[in-house]
Write a structure and sequence with these properties.
single chain, SH3 type barrels, 5 domains, 6-stranded mixed beta sheet, globular, N-acetylmuramoyl-L-alanine amidase, hydrolase, EC 3.5.1.28
Length: 464
């Protein structure tokens, strides 16, 4: 048996660095190897493909290894067999570990948090016993959200069990029960086991809430009509992937809600239809205790737009978000940044963060650009009609605080809004393509009044 010792290790088509990558595997995963060549091992990737992994990325382990259970809370997992070696993690009491080897009084172990060394005095080594029936404990909720990326779903509640599938951060699962530190789950495809550390129980979700119906557009250029007939006037053309709330059904047509409080009809044969949970409604009582996600646009290799004077949007959005973070935190809000440094965060992950934390508001922060260097001003976007009030209140707060041209509140078909189940808006806080405006928006006074405006808008939204 092989255990992967490095996060996101590459699996290649052949035994060498020159071969193409077919996928990645995670630290702590176990594989059988049928062949070895030039210090490379052939394994079966979770996708089912056969590939090769470098010997320096894995360790061989004994298939008859022992198991143990941690007896103290906060036990240090070290990168070597001594008290002078660095601490990798602190382990909670009661978790199960696989014992991979021993050096003097130190044990090499595999844990849900990675592999390392612990002192033998703080682990109970379990004797092997015959398989017994697993009795599930009642879970705290029936729904969970995955908070670990590429999380392994296993056949049995054990790190040495076979991997059945992988889940992504933000995926929803049905919770069937608990067993020690493991969670029995069910997805659309199958059931299995995941470690409790990587799931957030949805305690706040009310099963009695009324779901809403939604259609998803299947083809680009689909027509929205004034009435439920192909002979009716065309109101708009919409694109593949767009989503609309269903108001009613008339024969083979759906009556749907459109931006700006309009309504229209779309044929049932050009959409997919599903039931979704209603958006979270604003909780009154001010900012204290509210969970607010601040999403600084772009980051890492995605620098966003670049200003006339060379300003990178990715740095300016983070600067604005960090200043707003401080103000909201002082008001007692629970504030989370989708990124707190120059890193690339995918759009689905930004949405997943809002979902995981059950956000009361999600604010995506951007700066604008256009070919015409004379265009200027700030704009607020929303996608779902439920989010229009949030957009209006924050836009009003900005209008009262900053002196840029007011470009209004508009419908915006952006991924972080369209796919977001939480109240969400996107702000464009000025044009970096306008030299005069760029000079203004990068100043400390502008950042101060802008974050004040957003802060005041959020305060108004939560007090209504």
């Amino acid at each position: 048996m092989l255990i992967v010792t490095t996060s996101k290790s590459n699996v290649r088509e052949g035994p060498g660095l020159s071969f193409p990558i077919i996928g990645k595997v995670q630290k702590g995963e176990l594989f059988s190897s049928t062949q070895m060549e030039n210090k490379w091992y052939q394994i079966e990737h979770p996708s089912g493909k056969k590939g090769w992994i470098a010997g320096w990325l894995v360790e061989e382990r004994n298939p008859n290894e022992k198991k143990g259970r941690i007896t103290v809370d906060g036990l240090r997992l070290r990168n070597g067999p001594s008290e002078t070696d660095g601490v990798l993690e602190t382990l909670p009491k009661g978790i199960e570990v696989n014992i991979l080897g021993q050096k003097r009084e130190w044990l090499k172990v595999e844990t849900p948090y990675g592999s390392g060394w612990i002192h033998q005095d703080y682990v109970n080594i379990e004797k092997k016993s015959s398989p017994k029936e697993i009795k599930l404990q009642k879970p705290p909720s029936k729904i969970g959200v995955i908070i670990g990326d590429q999380l392994n779903v296993r056949e049995e509640p054990s790190l040495s069990s076979n991997i059945k599938n992988q889940l992504k951060i933000g995926d929803e699962v049905q919770i069937l029960g608990l067993y020690n530190e493991w969670v029995r789950i069910k997805t659309e495809q199958e059931s299995g086991w995941i470690h409790q550390s990587f799931v957030k129980f949805e305690n706040n979700r009310k099963d009695s809430s009324t779901p809403q119906e939604e259609v998803v557009i299947l083809y680009n250029g689909t027509k929205i009509r004034e009435k439920a007939t192909t002979k009716s006037s065309i109101l708009a053309f919409v694109q593949q992937g767009d989503r609309y709330t269903v108001l009613s059904k008339e024969g083979d047509w759906f009556k749907i809600s459109l931006p700006y409080q309009q309504e229209g009809y779309i044929a049932s044969w050009v959409v997919s239809y599903k039931t979704v949970q209603k958006k979270k409604q604003a909780r009154k009582g001010g900012l204290k205790g509210k969970t607010i996600i601040l999403d600084p646009g772009h980051g890492g290799e995605d620098r966003g737009t670049t200003g006339v004077k060379g300003t990178f949007e990715k740095f300016l959005t983070l600067r604005t978000a960090e200043q707003l973070y401080q103000k909201l935190q002082k008001a007692g809000a629970n504030v989370i940044l989708t990124r707190d440094h120059d890193s690339n965060v995918s759009l689905p992950l930004r949405v997943a963060i809002a979902k995981i934390y059950d956000a009361d508001a999600f604010i995506s922060i951007h700066y604008d650009s256009i070919k015409d260097p004379t265009i200027n001003g700030f704009t607020t976007y929303y996608y779902h009609n439920d989010d229009r009030e949030l957009a209006k209140q924050i836009h009003k707060g900005l209008k009262q605080s900053i002196s840029l041209s007011d470009r209004g509140v508009h419908f915006g078909n952006y991924h972080v809004l369209r796919q977001n189940p939480q109240p969400s808006i996107l702000l464009e806080l000025g044009f970096l393509s306008n030299k005069k405006e760029e000079q203004k928006i990068i100043t400390n006074p502008y950042q101060e009044v802008t974050t004040n405006g957003i802060y005041n808008g959020l305060r108004s939204y939560f007090s209504k």
